[in-house]
Specification:
five-stranded parallel beta sheet; single chain; Rossmann fold; about 475 residues; hpI Integrase, Chain A; flat; about 50% helix; 4 domains
Amino acid sequence: MPGNIEHLNINESNALLKAIDDTRDFAIITLFLNSGLFLYELINLKINSIDWDKHVLHISGNRKRDIILNDQAYEALARWSKERPDVKCSSFFITTKGKAKELSGRNIDKFIKKYAGQAGIKRNVNAQILRNTFAVRLFSKEVEISKAAAILGISDHESINRYIKAAKEPMPEIPEHIDTRPKLVKAFSRIFPTKPKQAKPVTETKGPLVPSPEEVIFGRDSVVDELKSNISKNTSTLLVSQIGIGKTHILRNINHQHPEAIFIASPTPGKLMISQILDKLNPDWKKHTKARASLQETLDLLTASISGQPQTHLLLVDNLDRLKISDVDLFLKVLEHFTVIAAANDTGEKLKQVWWKFKKIEIRPLSEEASRQLIKYMTQNLSISDYEMLETRILTLSNGLPLAIVDMTHQISHQPVVTRERIREVYHEAGIHYRDWTSVIVVLWGVAIMFRFVALGTHSFESYILAGVGIAFISMMRFFAFRMR
């Protein structure tokens, strides 16, 4: 290499790296010092330009080549990949303030100059000097010219011939001695390497996706299969679970598979339910009845509409536990003519005669794997700085409730980039676990009463007062709700 090529010595390189306090900028400067990329090549790197498994950097353009990353460069890129938000811009290095976009060469040279000044380097340092620094070290170690040319992408006529020759040989590796890190740091990174984050492409759809029963249903395959079997057998089935478990979503999914089914959001008031059923079975039914027909008249018309039909109609009823006692007989008559798939949050005693008519399926919270799938589906169009952090928080607070997962993803849906600070603010009541202290309070109350009688029998005034204080304290405990996050 000509002697007048300006480059940094090893001390200046180390001082420059120590002056950097930003993960992205550190990765960029480290990559320059460990690969010798041209400035435009670094700008053009895409999220799929790095093969994380093989530690290979794919360079496109006129100097198309593959470079094997050494440990120092790989570690720096992996750390940036974990902080890089998933955005519509496919460039690997992007701006971190305002709208995410590709970095410009001017911006890169600007922050290189800034860090060089902080490191005490008096010269005007830019991307080209960092490339020269790598090249000088490469040739100083007596690396074969053909391998060096392949790594650097030299494009003059003589160097191109050497590059073609090198292409027939095994992929050139960057010598380990180019790594400027201390030996202890090198050893630690080999034992505990940073796991990179695979960047995901983001579509043009804005905000989180709303799970559509027509598209997806996570972790409910066995439930849906059982419902299909029960429908084929004309067996009415009741889905029972706590609020937010996804019963309505399951009913909508069944409705998508059976378009002829009639979906009822609530069984009350009973007359409205009958009218909705008639609207589906006989759209012209109002022409055959009075303007203010009684409930019995609409029920008779419903019976007439379905009598003589060979098939059994499918009725999907949500929130069946809202059924009024006065409408129980009406609903039982409907059950005689339909196969009903219903959902309820609880099965109280007051509707026992209704529950007896159903085969019950208890819906449990989603498994961790199904919850992860739902989170990934919901957040696929959001720009997230630390997806693993968000996933862990939502998993912890949702307790497997699909509604909680959907609610939490909507809390961050309007953020241009979901930062770590915003992730920490994500919250849901599903993550609160309530502990019932009733039995403990009853036992303590009994002990305090017994202790007070003993004190009274032994004429111990101090013990009697102490027992009275204990009873007062336990009485106060009754008015507090104990909960644990």
